[in-house]
């Protein structure tokens, strides 16, 4: 695959990666409420979701989803419901006053939620069966080209989401932890996830 093709593909998907969506907002929320480690755990889960999409695309299974509007819309609304559920949980926690107990979510919990957030995000599926096929050359191995392009997309996500997660994590580290801060950060994080759910529902 030519370098020019990879550069053109990157120029196409990077603006999409930078567009606020459930994955980016989930990482931002984790960085704001849990710091840099939580943000990177969320980033890992998001990338795992997109890696799963990449494997499915290479196997041609994403084309099956694309050919069935019913399957695609089912995935979309399951994603909407899941992100909305996370938002409600965060907002309910924000309005409750409680004694401070510094407790970070488990690695498994953060990665699992992040994985579902990206795997159920229609934006990821659109990249693989709407944008990626336009850069495939039929005279070469389709599976190998698909994996190379997917790796380019995933690398872009790692870098951009990593930077954004670090920015929000820096806000978390600037203040002494207290219940007022917890409620504010969880309220903001819940608002972010609410915006993501609305964006998914109206897309």
Description:
It is built from 9 helices and no strands. Helices cover 82% and strands 0% of the residues. The chain is mainly alpha-helical. Residues 99-103 have low confidence and may be disordered. It is a multi-pass membrane protein. One of its GO terms (molecular function) is amino acid transmembrane transporter activity.
Short description:
With 203 residues, this protein is an all-alpha fold. It is built from 9 helices and no strands.
Sequence stretches where pLDDT stays below 50 over 5 or more residues: 99-103
**Major β-sheet profile:** none
Compute the number of helices. 9
Q: How many structurally independent domains?
A: 1
In N-to-C order, the SSE pattern is HHHHHHHHH
Mean pLDDT: 76
Quickly give the structural class. mainly alpha
Task: Determine the N-to-C terminus distance.
Answer: 33 Å
Oligomer: single chain
Query: What is the gyration radius calculated from CA atoms?
Result: 18 Å
Strand residue content: under 5%
Number of strands: 0
Instruction: Please state the overall shape, judged from the principal axes of the Cα atoms.
Output: globular
Percent of residues in helices? over 70%
Keywords: Amino-acid transport, Cell membrane, Membrane, Transmembrane, Transmembrane helix, Transport
GO molecular function: amino acid transmembrane transporter activity
Membrane topology: Multi-pass membrane protein
InterPro entries: LeuE-type
């Amino acid at each position: 695959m030519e370098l020019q093709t990879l550069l053109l593909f990157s120029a196409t998907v990077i603006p999409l990666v930078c567009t606020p969506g459930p994955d980016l907002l989930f990482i931002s929320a984790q960085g704001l409420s849990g710091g840099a480690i939580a943000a990177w755990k969320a980033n890992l889960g998001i990338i795992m979701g997109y890696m799963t999409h990449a494997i499915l695309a290479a196997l041609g299974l994403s084309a099956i989803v694309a050919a069935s509007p019913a399957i695609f819309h089912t995935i979309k609304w399951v994603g909407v419901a899941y992100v909305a559920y996370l938002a409600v949980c965060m907002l309910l926690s924000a309005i409750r006053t409680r004694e401070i107990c510094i407790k970070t979510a488990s690695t498994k919990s953060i990665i699992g939620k992040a994985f579902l957030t990206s795997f159920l995000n229609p934006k990821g599926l659109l990249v693989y069966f709407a944008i990626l096929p336009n850069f495939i050359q039929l005279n070469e191995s389709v599976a190998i080209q698909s994996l190379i392009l997917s790796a380019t997309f995933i690398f872009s996500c790692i870098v951009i989401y990593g930077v954004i997660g670090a920015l929000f994590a820096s806000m978390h580290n600037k203040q002494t932890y207290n219940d007022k801060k917890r409620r504010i950060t969880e309220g903001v994080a819940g608002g972010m996830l609410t915006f993501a759910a609305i964006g998914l529902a109206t897309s």
